[in-house]
Amino acid sequence: MTSSSNWGTNWGTYDVDHPAAAVHISTGLAVRLGVFSTRAGRYTDFPVEGGGLTYGAHSTDGSFAELVCEHAGAAIRLRLAGSGDDLTGEVEVLRLTEWALRTWFILDVGWTATPDATGSVRVDVPPAERRYVEPPVVVADGPTGGWRMTTDVRPVSVDVYADASHVRSEFEDYGYYFRPPPWESGRSAVLRFTAVTPLVRFAVSRTAHPARLLGPVIVAAEDDPVRDIVGWNTVWDPVNRRRYTVSTRAWVGRKFGGWGVWQIDGFVHAVLAAYAGDHALAADNLEATLGNATGEGRLAALYSGRTRWVDRSHPPIGALATWTVWRTGGVGRSSPLLATAYPLLHRAFWHWFAVRDGNRNGLLEYGSSPVGDGHFVHTKLAAMDESAMDNSPMHDEASFRDDTHSLDVEDVGLNSLLVLEGMLIATFADRLERPPAEAAALRARCAVLAGGVRRDLWDRDREVFANRRWDGNFVRSVTPTSFFPLAAGIATAEQADALVRRWLTEPARFGGEWPVGATTHDDAASADNTYWRGRVWPLLNWLTFLGLRRYGYDEQAGWLADRSGALFDRGWAHRQAWENYGQRSGEGGDSPDADPFYTWSALLPLLRRLSDLGDELAEFDPG
Fold it and tell me: Which of the four, 388, 450, 502, 564, has the lowest number of CB atoms within 10 Å?
């Protein structure tokens, strides 16, 4: 279980299905917001799939969060602030479309954060006439002690429930005058308010009387999309009992059974948390993603509550992520995490060569091994999934070979990333004072692989690195993976110049207003505007940017960072962070296959910050 000792607070918006809730993860206590509209006749506790949520500022450690919740035309802002075991919050009505008396909101305080949370709740009502003036105090007793919660104004009513889910049917079936049967104690207490009282502050504590904590809730004023996106998408995994950052809340509950770690996403989340300054969370994300290691040696593409894709991996960036966390101050030389990561990354590196060189020529292909029962196992679709670019046109000419368990196309992106990965792992071996032969073997393998990419995956006629079929012909479709040899330090100066001049900045190919498209503009597949065909992906922009900086193309890197930021800003003006963007339109919402609050979208504004840093990868020369 992940330790929360260095999180800053035990409180956070960790319920993946219900963002409008503060959860004290180490005990299971939660405070949840719900709203009822008489005009609509509907109640909601704002499930993530229900929409109507605008994600505001959010620290990565749970110390503050702001969320605007819309229901039946009403807009209500929830602000939260955690400090240690104390929580303060406020609910403010911003907009109504019916009489204030007929919009109700509730605060549900109870032992509902996790399925195994245990405790009881009762209500202390002030005596005699004071009950008509002073708010009651909710007392929540759990295995580790008692808690108190109160508000700054008196609620219309406060009721104890064994199961607070009945609140929905009470409002919807009987209206707001319904009185539930009295209980002396239960699992939750529900405080009811009307919008006639447009601002309610509350506090929860187990070390002080909560009334002493009541006051305005302050959230950060400065705009920081990396912090906010990572903060909102950091949740609690109740099965593995750990904090981690998800790709998007919308996928986790129903789609993946309550938890899920996509390998490449998890490593990106560690990078983003590190640059957000939260090295504890960065380490949590590294630990969760390295947990995808299989007995065979590969790092599985996906582990979740519904399916495990142990037959395939993902493009190898684990060492790059670990090194980034290390470089930014998150992993020291003596860190147990680095000592844990090294053997897993080292084993995964060599595993690629054992299982993904189908024609045994030293250059690797993506594939799917005949192991496990993950969806699509041992098919072309699974092999394309291993590239993380599932429907990319670079796969259109490929066939899946049952005998080699791979595609019959050597992939320039995979081979380039493996060179970078191996060089970084060799550095870890040095730092951990492993036997010198381990680092030497890694560097030697990378030198051979780099030479193969430089020689055999360079299309001299088109002057570009490209995927190559086993029959010797180059794949027609070119994607931004052709720039990965820059990040790995593979390209010659002449090759780098051609890549940048003829491909990256050329308006008919990857240049133009919204770089870098997952397909060239002159590729017929770009008109599809579907996932990896005609869309801009933040992951590709980041890896391309690293290559530009490595080769000294600072002007072009600055251009890419500026255009990436401008692309992101279009959605962020509405607090949206799209999974991918139209490479022609610059819009995130013009495709049904783009999630509106996806964590790695934060890579786009991150590039602006990275533009102010020095080159990151030049010391890792593969030769």
Answer: 502
